[in-house]
Amino acid sequence: MSIITDLHGERPIVTDMDAPDLTILYGSQTGNAEYLAYQIHGASEKNGDTVALASLEEWLHSDDRALRRLLVVTSTHDNGHMPDNAAEFWEWIQSLEPGALAGMPYAVLSIGDSMYDDFCKAGHDIDGRLHELGAVRVVEGVDCDIDFEFTATKWAKPAVADLLAADPWTADAPTAGVEAGMAESTGDSDRRYLARVSASQNLSKPGSAKEVVHYELTVDDGGFAYEPGDSISVFVTNPPRLVEEWIAVFGDVDVTRQDATRPLREVLAAEVELRLVHPGLIAGLARLRPDNRAVARLAQMLQTGDRDGLEEWLWGRDVLDVLTDLDCRDVPAEDVLDILRPLQHRDYSIASSPVGDDGRVHLTVNGVRYDAGGRSYAGAATSFLRERAVDGSPFEVRRVPAHEFRLPAADVPVIMVGPGVGVAPFRAFLRHRDAVGAGGRNWLFFGDQHRAYDFLYEDEFADLSRRGTLTHLDLAFSRDQADKHYVQDEIRRSADELRDWVAQGGYIYVCGDKVHMAPDVDRAFADILGGDAAVDELKVQGRYVKDVY
Ligand SMILES: Cc1cc2nc3c(=O)[nH]c(=O)nc-3n(C[C@H](O)[C@H](O)[C@H](O)COP(=O)(O)O)c2cc1C
């Protein structure tokens, strides 16, 4: 008996069959690795081999864990950590005796983001540990960056063929330690709660290029708890207007997925990603429409690794645009649904204090909204939260606990760099330290485009400064003067005093844009603190922590 899950990993489908020829197990936080595993699974079964698919966690808890050959597909999360549904598997393989998996053929596909210091670390950790346990690495693992589909597509086909050609493992996976792994897990890390928007307020003022909104959520169920530094996942649905655009094309029909027949409208609203286009959509269309030359031209870019060309073409288009512009609106709805990714939840840093804010959860949300080519686009979360703020209807959320992004002891100085909506967790830190009367000093670096329109939480920070909680507030508004001025310039300007704070045990936190801001801020701290080695040493001590996206 083997476990196969549906695309969302939510409904394990248990099938009666002997041990599968290949078992594909994924660790995935936001659905990318899961999607990839699902695609590889679909392509692998074509040759008559039996291939099982499950999350690492589901497999660990299944009744029959027979393995013949193993392919692990995993992302890395929260600065070098396992995705939640890989954590117990990781605990388990760490608890096994040397040689426990001797001779088992395996390969690991890792996805991550090379902007992080711990690029693909979870995949490397699993790969290294399987090797230590005696498993046989049939194919060198591969590291895939944010455009993972390019690298993964090239790697997966020959890798699966090599794995299937390897002699199967005939022993049973050891059962020891599974319960220990379970005991260590938090148990409720996946629990979803119902929340409502109880208040909202525009933070960007008229004239701003941005649309930042402060939301306050009340969580209906008891038992929801969080700590400063945590984030929250909001399980959004797609905007009704967008769903209607799809219905106008595909009709108000019923569709059958995983043996259940439901209205297409329902599936479009809640289950599939309609906003964010992924390159795998092109690979899927190429399979469905082998004679379509426009699709073939783009699929060729995917195969040859021309990521710039493909990304340029995809830029600004949503999924419906892609189907329209590639003349694929006549593909049957069920086939289109099969090549869409599961609807992604949206994660936000919590901006409130569990002590000072009556159990409410505050979010600082950057809106996405624009018009192009006669269509209006709005980010799924932007319209979702706005609608919920108007009608008060409940929706699901899940706590995402921070690993290192935590306040130190109450008397330790804290340096926070959070321009734009990166300020959210620092508002939480400051409100928390204020509420509990922590004595440690607090220094915030904040910046954005214009002071007049973009100074988020200006009054609150002024108040926290007056009360003495906010010891220093350094501001960098980039477009208020001829020369651009950023938080890293403010950091350099205060080099001497920052060195003192760090010498006195201070912690540094950076939150926000990972592409430009975080590397520039890293450079500035390395320059003022004595080079990269000094920053690395702080990282090792957990005193230089980033939450960047
Ligand atoms: C909060 C956060 C932390 C992350 N940390 C890392 C990291 O330390 N190393 C890395 O390679 N990728 C990191 N990533 C990038 C993810 O691995 C990448 O987005 C991946 O595609 C997610 O796959 P998933 O949806 O299957 O979880 C991080 C992403 C987020 C949102």
Distance between the termini: 40 Å
Q: Indicate the CATH class of the largest domain.
A: Alpha Beta
- Report the mean per-residue pLDDT as an integer: 89
**H/I helix tally:** 21
What is the name of the CATH architecture of the largest domain?
3-Layer(aba) Sandwich
Which runs of at least 5 residues are low in confidence (pLDDT < 50)?
A: 1-17, 180-187
Description:
The chain has 4 domains: 2-184, 3-Layer(aba) Sandwich (Rossmann fold); 193-236 and 345-400, Translation factors (Elongation Factor Tu (Ef-tu), domain 3, Beta Barrel); 240-338, NADPH-cytochrome p450 Reductase, Chain A, domain 3 (Up-down Bundle); 414-548, Rossmann fold (3-Layer(aba) Sandwich), CATH 3.40.50.80. Helix 3 crosses helix 6 (178-184) and helix 20 (517-529) packs across helix 21. By secondary structure, it is α/β, with parallel strands linked by helices. It has 21 helices and 23 strands. The longest helix has 18 residues, at 148-165. Helix content is 37%, strand content 22%. The radius of gyration is 25 Å and the shape is globular. Flavin mononucleotide (FMN) binds at residues 28-34, 75-80, 83, 111-113, 116, 118-121, 549. Flavin mononucleotide is lined by residues 28-34, 75-80, 83, 111-113, 116, 118-121, 549. One of its GO terms (molecular function) is flavin adenine dinucleotide binding. It comes from Microbacterium thalassium. Pfam families: FAD_binding_1 (PF00667), Flavodoxin_1 (PF00258), NAD_binding_1 (PF00175).
